Amino acid sequence: MGFKEGAFPLRCVYCGWIVPDGGCPCGRSTPGTGELAVPIGVRVLARAGRGPSMDRWEPGEVVAHVGPVHRVETRHGVSWCESDDMIPESPQRQALLVPGARVWALWADGRWYPGTVDGVQGPLRHVTWDDGDSMWLEAGHAVVMALDASPARVGARVLAQRWDGEHQRGTVEQRDGDRFLVAFSDGEEAWVPAGDIKADPPSPFLDVG
Asked: What global pTM score does this model have?
């Protein structure tokens, strides 16, 4: 069974954002009035729960419903998911993933990172992430990027170059003219020139509450 257009209003199948009353950022989804359940047999990307430690997504398939909750089977077992904990597979989204398309793509750690499609082979897409990593993945493991990055500012998530030339993600803590104090994910801090820093675009997958 395939994805039925307009059937799942809680998370846009094109850009991945949860759809508010006014529609999603990419403009392709608006709140629907139909059934919110993802049909049995549909392939999805799903997360097992919500919270700071529940940010990993993986492919699976809806196999049953209990009210509004979906039983999703993945290679690691069974998860029970609400509609906004899943992104159904979508041929319409796949058609938009052409070379040059900016995307959020699922990395090997189960998390989403910004990148660009630079190759197409049937159902596969070659993605180069903003940190320079690249690989082939199924088209269903990427969504269209709906919002561009804004300039770096205090509190922003960024990709910054460290003293050894490696690019890593971190958070801007302070600004002093044309340089930024960045706290990296390993706990280290460093002042980084503005030319060596790039703000991440707003992510549709940080709704961890």
From this structure: 0.80
